[in-house]
Backbone:
């Protein structure tokens, strides 16, 4: 029977240009090893500061993927 | 006397490029029928994934507008 | 003895183009008077509407900085 | 069988004198068109300021009413 | 280009037997008038009591559907 | 004069079969001593596990009842 | 040594005129049996509706008092 | 260019008669030194008790104002 | 010395019949590889809709298990 | 049949030395009258100040125990 | 009449030994310039890590003090 | 290009003496296999009770570390 189980992982992506790029970076890195990613929810946005200027945008997001025991 | 009543509606805008565009899309669609929109608060940001890449950015937002009984 | 005390202030930046610019504007204005800013957390995103279109993006953020008694 | 479905709407009432009046204003306006209102929960209280004084009290509240498809 | 706008409505379903039935009742009532329902999130579960026994299970849920201006 | 005061108590019901039964068990036990129970809100659902299987469903709920000083 | 233990109880006061009166009613009823009440925090405000008008204001509040084993 | 930066401060007003007066007291005291106050959000309501009666109503609120570096 | 470290993982179980079954499915799948599962907390309940009817119940839950470095 | 009902009570412990001692004080006071205490969750930590120094640490915690009607 | 206005400030204290010391450090530093501090609430606890070991405990807390316009 | 991706894991440390030790235990166990740990946020504190006394302090914390696909 086909009811699946998913697992949720929290990732943080980082970008010097935007929160969209930060999220994209996290998703593309994760998708090389996690199967069947479909939706990611933003759980936190923040940014780092250097010399009084914004240095990096960071997006923390929850991503769910097929749970495969043993993986 | 002029104290008004407002109603709050929750909308979800979608965009392939950014959360700002997703929000803009929701506002512009709504403003064709809702009167006197002034502020919208983001209540959730997420994104959809296809083939391991970000496909769409989605912004869920609360928008308040003049309540007109019967409308 | 070197254990420091920090203070957290909440700022709101505003931009006609993006939430990233709104945040950047708040950080750069604050960094002229606050010392040792390192991280800022977004606590709220919203936007203002004029004539049925998005007018301004606003980002509210917490920024922490060295606490200097008397300052 | 008679198990009903309700719908929840968020309203904002405004008053120059109190949050109770703000809530009352929202309820009385809504009750002209919504059937079977019974309880409303406050979800936010705020106020507007003009010339350094409180101008209006605003109460945001959730009100549930009988859902009638097509209405 | 076809990026859509969705609207989120909050419904309360009621059932004498289970929260699953309460949710099902809300969804089936709503689907007669709302287009393209896909996911509903539970935001609150409660129950009513009569004569010291559980009388009804109630499920409050957010359901999003295609936004059609004018509808 | 008839304005009453209520007290809210938090209970946890437990069942081997469902969260509905867990809630029912808490309500029926409480109703033997508490007067005028009308609504109970679920504040947490969890479950216990034994030997890799779900053993018990637990429902934590807030129940309000007439406050009688001295009781 | 005299470090005390307090207990927190949740009460709901009801009033036809204001949330302040609703809170006052809960406090005065409780103070006849609970010792050493000092602060009460509002955790929820709502109201009941009859015939399309506000009927009662209700204030739910946490009140802490000296814990006396056996009481 | 005119995009402004705002700062958010949290104040607590106190009154023997109502939460509205408590909020008003905080706003009027603050407006003597803070520029361009426009909206204040209530973040907490509580009350103090003396001799078994409500002594003071307290309203904690966030108020935002123009940020002026060096001020 | 025997004080253990646990790790918390978030899973999503899916069922066509109930949230209890959805949770059970997640627990039984996980227990084939995770050691010493004892309690799981529900963090979100939702459901998917197809053709205007509830298709699947989904339960998201936190489960904690013995942390074994290297596993 | 053995499925039990528990009741949750909120206590505040106080200590001049640490939050651990504050919690311990609440638990040991309660355990003289409440049966079968097993877990307590911290819901709030705060502290009181006298003459510019920390005077007492306070821990507010939820403790659940067997519910015995009539007790 | 003398109803006061308070202001709430968020501080972060840091310590190599405990969260109690971190809080104490923040309070003692602040009390040299802020008048009439009485209670501080913990809003966040975290810690920093260096070389795989806990380096510093940090306590973020809200402290309220008499508001003096112009100060 | 060097923008990294981090992963966030939730751990629970346990100690018979303090929450600081509970957190330390979780960090030191994790640091044997996770690279580049820098900050951990406390998400929950609780304690277990045996024979009416506090038996163990438990600290649940989020720790973020470099995400290495395949690890």
Residues:
């Amino acid at each position: 029977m086909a009811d699946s189980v998913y697992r949720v992982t929290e990732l943080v992506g980082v970008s010097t240009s935007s929160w969209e790029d930060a999220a994209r970076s996290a998703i593309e890195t994760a998708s090389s090893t996690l199967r069947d990613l479909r939706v990611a929810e933003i759980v936190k946005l923040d940014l780092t500061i250097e010399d009084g200027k914004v240095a990096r945008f960071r997006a923390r997001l929850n991503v769910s993927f097929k749970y495969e025991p043993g993986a």
In short: Chain K has a mean pLDDT of 91. Chain K has one domain: 6-66. The first strand of chain K starts at residue 5 and ends at 15. Chains K and F do not touch (no CB pair under 8 Å).
